Amino acid sequence: MDEWIIWVILAVVLGVAEIFTVTASLGLLGAAALLAAATAAIGLPVPIQLLVFALSSAAGLIIVRPIAMRHLRQPQLQRFGVEALVGKPAYVVREVTGRDGRIRIGGEEWSARAYDESLVIPIGATVDVMEIEGATAVVYPRE
Q: Which residue range(s) make up the domain with 98?
């Protein structure tokens, strides 16, 4: 069996293993095996093939892998719009019950209702926004 075929088989095995591990290591080793297959296909001897495999593997693992891992780990996406209001404190400007009320969140007035329908939250209380339903903030009083 030709040497380049062995290198290609090794590259395929490493590529398939990379699919299951998602570490960006085995895929780079598979790419190095393809480079070694190319050197074997042009007729270079086995020691040169091994040297090409070793050098390209080392370069991939030392240089390419850290860059790939940095791109895989993206920062947490920031919340925008009404999603950003969930978890924020608010100030009650009109008594909040299980049906209605008014609060001020960061300078904006919102209609509100209590998270627990049996609660009555007085004017001046501080509440936490639990969720936003349409244009109404669902709130819970701070202890």
A: 81-141
Per-residue model confidence as pLDDT tens digits over 3-39: 899 999 999 999 999 999 878 889 999 999 999 999 9
Burial of 141 (0-12, 13-18, 19+ CB in 10 A): middle
Same domain, 42 and 59: yes
Instruction: Give the tens place of pLDDT for each residue, 76-89.
Output: 777 788 888 898 99
